[in-house]
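Quick board copy: two proteins, each given as sequence then tokens.
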Amino acid sequence: MDPLTQLLDGPRARGACTLHTVMSPPWAIEVRDRAALTLVVVTSGRARVTSPHGEADLGPGDVALMRGPDPYTVSDGAGRTPAITILPGQRCVSAEGEDVCLTMQHGIGSWGNDPDGEDTMIVGAYEDDSEVGRLALAALPPMAVLANGRVDPALVDLLTREITSGRVAQASLNDRLLDSLLVMAVRAWLEEDCDRCPSWLYGQSDPVVAHALDLLHDRVAEPWTLDTLARACAVSRATLAARFQRAVGTPPMTYLRTWRLTLAADLLTADPGLSLEAVAARVGYGSAFAFSTAFRRHTGVSPSGYRSRPRVEAVPS
């Protein structure tokens, strides 16, 4: 499986918070939920997203991807003081500290300060990083904005209808539709903003390096050395090392180590019941001890510590 496919295969929402938000100006919401990733699609009117990493004005069809855990504000315009704060667990409180989750509900799946508000959005929050996948989180910037037309409006319309339908199996279908919408948005961002793409995407432009990457990703548990990888690519060690460094920005074996530990981080959170021995074997380490040593050196925490850490703390790349 190539890395881009693996990245886009990552999202797997489990009971994600999906809402049809309906607001009338003036309004501002401060989001401090520490969700791993939130997707906001404006369906009518306007919204302004402000975070420590930038700000953007959104119109109908525009999409914002907000990577946690940093807080951000969504409002109808600049200079608004938030009247509502979203806390972890999607708890909503007023500026006075009053819980307003129920008082601002308007039927199934709709929430806001006015059921007939002119500013409407679809909001989907992946609360835990295991639901998104380490690769997607590592690939995305803290804030990414996509213009109208970059995601299929038919999918947005379908998700909007399902969120407010109350039909059987609604939560399951909402999760799958949200996953599809996120995959479409991430793919569009990667195509649109190549300058900030992960280094492994650049390697696809060199056929030798692309083949080496495919081998490393498809057979990650194999005991690769620079010699065996070069032979598999039908080039010399020196040729492979030079072309790989030029295309990807790191030596092949360094890249392999980082890739293995990236996959391991995903496995640790996606399947908490998986033993360290099983994780080690899946990513090419001969023992749990060798894996734990490498993981701690790479991340600063042990595998068990990483599993039990507060959510959305990323593995250093």
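And the next:
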Amino acid sequence: MSYQIVTDSACNLTEETIDAFGLEILPLTFMVDGVQHRSYLKGEKTDLRQFYTMMREGKVITTSLPNMQETETTLRRVLDTGHDVLYLGFSSALSGTYEATKLLMKQLAGEYPDRTLCAVETFAASGGEGMLVYLACKKKEAGASLEEVADFVRETRDHLCHWFTVDDLMFLFRGGRVSRTSAWAGTLLNIKPVMHVDNEGRLVPVEKARGRRKAIKALVDHMEQTAIDPANQTIFITHGDCIEDVVLLESEIKKRLGCTEFVVNYVDPVIGAHSGPGTLALFFVGEHK
């Protein structure tokens, strides 16, 4: 039976990748000055440089789950065309998106008894979720069944490493990720936190670097310690409008680990609203998260 891979816009995949694999994307939403926007609309490009400029200028951005009525419409369209559904979702430790979509799929399963609806949590975010979806699509292209791809994602998600740093701790404070005291002290001392996402999909601070260059070096240090055959991986990088730092990070990875294939994209508005401009994130497959 043919099947459709569905994911949400927190995956931060490029439009080219989405089109190449024929993915269905459920867009999360964000609000600016009381106006609701979707973080992804097929065929329409959000001006993400302008989005991060608004954040730098002090605009307050709030976020919410996908519109579940639209999600239902998307899933019904897939099911009505005779396809099964494999949904790969955003970490439930960071958003209610996965649980809400999984519940809707359970409800739809009763109406479509001949279809398979399978939801798998990625325990990932941003390029980490995107990399898992990318690898899942590669498996599907190679002829793997829905069940085989779902099992692959379950096996791989604890090896999908997320390492990232932010430029301004105040955005993490506003999102409830760090205390006000830590945010102010870190800002005054030019401290850049180095964080990762654990096996439960939660953000975990690991170390503190003094200055941006040391934080970038720390990202590569962690990759060097745990990456499996990095030179033969496609490495994912996402950023909050700081392409110069992406260039520096890529250069360091190439020099130390011999990697040549990179997928680079902006952090989407829903995640970026909490991490802020200057977020820099690195994703690869490793021995453990």
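Board note added afterward: DSSP finds eleven helices and 13 strands in the chain.
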